[in-house]
Structure formats: structure tokens, C-alpha cells
Specification:
This protein has 365 residues and is α/β, with parallel strands linked by helices. The protein is built from 14 helices and 12 strands. The relative contact order is 0.14.
Length: 365
């Protein structure tokens, strides 16, 4: 599944440093605004200890993790919705992603300039959010012009659509992002059709200094207070530490570095898993002698559609799915032992795939 998380924020908050560490793609990271002009795209693997366990138990010829796409998007400034800076380009790029990682600067460093002259992550967040709301209003106003003309035909459907658009416009004019609104069915449909920017789910990444990577600082505490009512996820991360870890070659060196920093795992692992959760994805596995592999589907996906992720023929000719819970596979050690214990389930077309399912599909084309 080609699902994308876009890394956004003001210039010089650490977006590109974070992206480089995530993807080792070598995107330009520099101490001046608009170092990133074109969006950089990277494919990152989703860390999953369950895949390592299955690899150890099955001993396949190859192991393939699941992935998501990360996009590093040009920094936004106040006035972007009116085309300031690289605003139009930024907003066009963000429209193409499925979820947003909003990086806010929570560190002091006189060597790294701030476009607004001071460190204030709450203000920075509001600048970005306001520009996205203004762009959504512009998008909605263009649609309203068309709907007002169409509503002159007097049909119930056109009038209802116009009413939904006006209602949504009123809510946006209050400055609230769409994702935080209680929407009617009509408003929800309109938001999806227009691909409104503020409807996208958001993960906040507070970028801190090295010594604050574990517990955060006063900036992160103030930021947490500001987003308390959003129900949003927030992680604390030090982009500089992550860049240093990415340069280390061996797992032993990385672990020694983490131990020295007092960290249990790289912050990037938490970031990637949080992105995965933000996109409402789950992982199922296939396990055989040739290959153990992780596959990504949306939560709520039924078995035939999950099979179709492997190959369209699997979905077209779906007969049944043989399903083992990961916990049973781990506890019993082999597929044969699972079968013998009666722990393999035979599921049909209505089965909803759950996170951690180990699956084998029967099909006929």
C-alpha cells in the first residue's frame, strides 16, 4: 500500500534532519529557510519484533518487512495560503499525503536561526494550522460558487449539498481544523471529496536537544498543555541524536549509543510506529520456508481484500483463509504444532483481518 506521511513545519525546525535519519536518503539539511524546495520521498521499514520472532522460528530463505512512505515537504511560513515563501507548492504537496507529521522546534540553539526570531512551539503550530485552515477555506469557497449556481435547479440534493458547504465554511471560519469538528454526513462527504488539508490526521513531533530527549523540557510541557484538547499523539524526539544513530553501522554500536543516551530504542522507531497507527494500519504475516513477510492493510479490511494486497488473483479467486494468531505461533513454535493444538482457524470472506494474524490464503482462478 502506497500510503504517505508528510513531514511538515516551519523552516529550520529539523524536518530534513529527521527525514535523513529516517531514510538515509541524504536530503539537503541546512541552516537557512527553504533548504527543501522539492519534496523528498523515502521508503522506511516498520520495526516489528514479531517479524524477527517468526524469522527465528520459521528460518525462511528471506524476510521482508512492511513499509510506509515518508515525504519531507518544504517549510511553511506565515502567509503561505496567499503564496508567501513556497506556500503554494507546500500546500499542493501536503494535499497528496494521507497523514501529517508536524515537527515543532522545542530546542534553543543560537546557531540555528528561527524565521520568527524566538522559540515558541505553540505559536509555530498555530501558524502552520492557520495557513492550512485558510487554504481549506479557499478550496471550499471555490466549491461554494459552483454549488450556488447548481442549487438554482431547486433539487433537494443540490440544496442539501449547499447547506453542508455553508455549514462547513462557518466552522472553518472559527479557525478550527476539520479533524477536530463534529461533522454531519454531508459535511464529511464534502471534506473527503475536497481532500481538505486540516482533515488529515496529525502526529506532533517535538524536536528537542540531546539532553532533553528522554523527559522533554519546558517547551514540550507548554506544548502538551496547548494540544490537550485535541486527542492528538505527540512524541519527543531529538533529530540530532537520530542522525548520529543512523550513521552507526553495527547494531552493537547503536545499542551502546542508546544506552549512553538513556534511551530504550531509537526515537525513529517510535515515530514510524506512530505514523503507522496514525494511518490506521494493521500488519498481517505470511510465513513459509521461502519467505516470512509482513503485509499492510487498513484496519477493518476483510480477508479477500487482504489477500489482494499479495496478488489480485488471490482476491478474485478467494476460497478461504487459514489464520493463526501470532501469540499461538510464538507459544507453540511451528505451524504443525499450532494445527495439532487446534489453534488454526478457517475463515471465510467476511473475516476481518486483525493485527498480528499469520495467514495462508486458499484461492482458485
Amino acid at each position: 500500500m502506497a500510503l504517505k506521511c508528510g513531514i511538515v513545519g516551519l523552516p529550520n525546525v529539523g524536518k530534513s534532519t529527521l527525514f535523513n535519519a529516517l531514510t538515509a536518503a541524504g536530503a539537503l539539511a541546512a541552516n537557512y529557510p527553504f533548504a527543501t524546495k522539492e519534496p523528498n520521498l523515502g521508503i522506511v521499514t516498520v520495526p516489528d519484533d514479531r517479524l524477527d520472532t517468526l524469522m527465528r522460528l520459521v528460518k525462511p530463505k528471506s524476510t521482508i518487512p512492511t513499509t510506509i512512505e515518508i515525504v519531507d515537504i518544504a517549510g511553511l511560513i506565515k502567509g503561505a495560503s496567499q503564496g508567501e515563501g513556497l506556500g503554494n507548492q507546500f500546500l499542493a504537496n501536503i494535499r497528496e499525503v494521507d497523514a501529517i507529521v508536524h515537527v515543532v522546534r522545542c530546542f534553543d540553539d543560537g546557531q540555528v536561526v528561527h524565521v520568527d526570531g524566538s522559540i515558541d512551539p505553540v505559536r509555530d503550530k498555530e501558524i502552520v494550522e492557520t495557513e492550512l485552515v485558510l487554504k481549506d477555506l479557499e478550496t471550499l469557497e471555490k466549491r461554494l460558487e459552483k454549488l450556488q449556481k447548481q442549487s438554482k435547479d431547486g433539487t433537494k440534493e443540490s440544496k442539501a449539498l449547499l447547506e453542508s458547504a455553508r455549514s462547513l465554511q462557518g466552522k472553518l471560519e472559527e479557525g478550527k481544523p476539520v479533524r477536530l469538528m463534529n461533522l454531519s454526513d454531508g459535511e464529511q462527504a464534502l471534506s473527503q471529496e475536497l481532500m481538505l488539508l486540516t482533515a488529515k490526521p496529525v502526529l506532533y513531533a517535538c524536536n528537542v536537544n540531546e539532553e532533553e530527549a528522554v523527559d522533554g523540557n519546558e517547551y514540550t510541557r507548554l506544548f502538551d498543555e496547548a494540544i490537550a484538547g485535541e486527542g492528538a499523539e505527540r512524541i519527543i524526539i531529538c533529530a540530532g541524536i537520530e542522525a548520529d544513530i543512523a550513521e552507526l553501522d553495527s547494531p552493537e554500536d547503536r545499542q551502546a549509543f542508546l544506552d549512553e543516551m538513556g534511551l530504550e530504542e531509537p526515537g525513529l522507531h517510535r515515530l514510524i510506529r506512530a505514523c503507522y497507527k496514525l494511518l490506521d494500519l494493521v500488519t498481517y504475516f505470511t510465513a513459509g520456508e521461502k519467505e516470512v513477510r509482513a503485509w499492510t492493510v487498513r484496519r477493518g479490511t476483510q480477508a479477500p481484500q487482504a489477500a489482494g494486497v499479495i496478488h489480485t488473483d488471490f482476491e478474485k479467486g478467494f476460497i478461504r483463509a487459514e489464520v493463526i494468531k501470532y501469540e499461538d505461533y510464538e507459544a507453540l513454535g511451528t505451524e504443525a504444532a499450532v494445527k495439532e493444538a487446534g489453534k488454526m482457524a478457517i475463515e471465510g470472506k467476511e473475516y476481518i483481518v486483525l493485527d498480528g494474524d499469520v495467514m495462508h490464503f486458499r484461492f482458485n482462478v
